[in-house]
User: Fold this.
Amino acid sequence: MNQTVDPRFKFAYLLSLKKVETTILLSVAALCLGVGFILGDGTNANYELIYSFAHQCVWGSVFLIYGSVKMLSLLKFVDYRIKILNGCVGLWAWNYIFLSFAIFDTTAMAPTEVLLLVPVIAEVWILISVVKKVI
Assistant:
């Protein structure tokens, strides 16, 4: 008997198998963003809300620390509580970046700004898997 599998199950199964790749993606994106904040010159209107909260070097440091902890977590040297704390900080930071660029800025939303949802979704998925392991 040939049964079809629900596509949602297939998608969830694939994502659960690819946590290492997702963690690498988040880590590399955060490290690149951290370097970009420190070395770059973001002075247009999109950055007003971000820089009203913290200086660009602070944002760079947050993303560099977050990305480094993500990368170290692949080597199993990081306690689950640190993983959860780091994931929550990362989720907050990615959401803040997305909301600052796509929702609350004074300029029109650019098509590429929607891509900022990808790290938010990926971090939620990683956090769910870390909490699921603990419970």
